[in-house]
Amino acid sequence: MDFLFEYYGFTPGKMRRWHPGAGVLLQGCNERENWPLYQTSQEGAQLDLAAYRSKRKGALAFIGQLLANIDSRPAQFSCFGLHEWAMVYRQGEHRHPLPLRLGQAGTDAVVDAHELRCTHADAYRFFTAAAAPKNLGRPTYHDQLETEQPGCIHAGSMDLYRWAFKLSPGISSDLLVECFQHAIKARELDMASSPYDTTSLGLPNIAIETPEGKAEHVSRQRALADRARELRTKLRLEIGVLSGSGEHLSEIC
């Protein structure tokens, strides 16, 4: 869980500050007078949509388009989590302190025996110099809108948490927490399928170098993608309200 806070940079303290989302009037809640992007009146407090749209216009457009593009593409389930293996391929020093389950030579052999099919720029950029040319594509941030796909554990699942908090306080905290909980499950699969021995963390490894391990990885990856589709729909609906393409109004007494 610490990885999610460190990697994405959204602190637990920020997550504890609850936001209802757009169009919700918090009656009698005037203590939010000095909260960024809120407006208060005698009736209560709510998100200042005009100010929010002015400040977050670019982010709303990019994130909304990215999620729509991801939804429009077929999911790929043939990477088997090998991005983590590619990050330690033929390299003596590793990003995590955990030992390699198969040792360095065994890890390198697994990479050599497979085709790398990573579509996520933020994973590919950590590939070792020896592993990068082995990947089918060369994903970068510049072509992110064209390459991200819903089967990816990172772009399809974990990053939903990133986009939810990037749009805070516009996105409801209830949805943010849902995305965070989903990101935890995605990260667990990410590490279980990695080359690291995670048993000391109480996380059984998935031996993706075996047919049985591949089958388990794909099964769990598909389940993540199904849940991510639901969350992406919710996120896109809230983004639609924030950007002005839809509206809703509710009151909390």
From TrEMBL:
This is 3-methyladenine DNA glycosylase. It comes from the Bacteria.
